[in-house]
Design brief:
By secondary structure, the chain is of the alpha+beta class. The protein contains six helices and four strands; from the N terminus they run E-H-H-H-H-H-H-E-E-E. It has one domain.
């Protein structure tokens, strides 16, 4: 019989050293707003294009596909921006995938409950562990119809799961559907479109180890000054600039520690 392994001395691991920055701009001039909107629209368009490519790849996606998507985006913005966009697409696809699985489990649970209730005599009382039968023949008929509806939905959801199909919308499905119910949402078409464009904009960049104030793309100083390096297409625009290709604006910044 072999000897027991010796236990190492206990030690305390270091806490997280990075921070995630969520910032809200204040006191912007019209020129500031124009530049930020144009940059957000440009990068949002590229993010939409990349999300479409990620969804089209489905379950066949691998590191090779990821590298190909990043190279396609790097032709327009920087490599760091392309990396942020591809990671956001990956996370959105994965979130939609988990949501689809949760939807399947919910449908299965609903079908099991209705099937159990339909199998009991009408009016039979339930217990703490299981529901009883339907209270009337009318309710029994309605539940039977509902069972067929849920079964059809479950069949489609399982087919999407097996094929790796997800249904996502940059900007949100709820806001997209609001477009057809503007009066109920107390919105005009113009106000809805402003919100829609704002939700689909993209402006983010991952931090870089060893770089002060974030990275070379988006920098946030301890005084709350944000410096954004403009991508190539809108770099010709008039801007409030100090240094080549960098847009600076004062902001109100909230710092939040990242998870370890």
């Amino acid at each position: 019989m072999g000897a027991l392994r010796e236990m190492a001395a206990p030690f305390v691991t270091l806490g997280p050293s990075g921070v995630a920055v969520r910032t809200r701009f204040k006191h912007l001039t019209s020129e500031h707003e124009k530049v930020l909107r144009l940059v957000g629209d440009l990068l949002g368009t590229l993010a939409c294009r990349d999300l479409k490519a990620r969804c089209a790849a489905g379950l066949g996606h691998d590191t090779g596909h990821w590298a190909e998507r990043k190279r396609a985006l790097t032709q327009e913005p920087s490599s760091r921006r392309a990396g942020s966009a591809t990671k956001a697409s990956r996370d959105q696809w994965a979130l939609a995938r988990r949501g689809l699985l949760a939807h399947i489990h919910s449908l299965e649970a609903g079908i099991a409950t209705i099937t159990h209730r339909l199998s009991l005599p009408v009016g039979e009382k339930g217990s703490e562990r299981a529901p009883g039968g339907c209270r009337s023949r009318r309710e029994w008929h309605a539940k039977a119809r509902r069972l067929h509806v849920l079964a059809d939905r479950l069949e489609r959801a399982r087919a999407d799961w097996q094929a790796g199909v997800v249904h996502v919308v940059r900007g949100g499905k709820r806001l997209l559907k609001t477009r057809h119910h503007l009066q109920a949402a107390h919105l005009t078409e113009e106000r809805w479109r402003v919100r829609w464009q704002a939700e689909r904009r993209f402006l983010a960049a991952d931090g870089e180890s060893g770089k002060r104030y974030g990275n070379e793309t988006i920098r946030v100083t301890s005084d709350g000054e944000v410096s954004i390096k403009l991508p190539a297409p809108p770099a010709h625009l008039p801007r409030v600039v100090r240094g080549g290709g960098a847009h600076r604006a004062a902001s109100h910044t909230r710092w939040r520690r990242s998870r370890p």
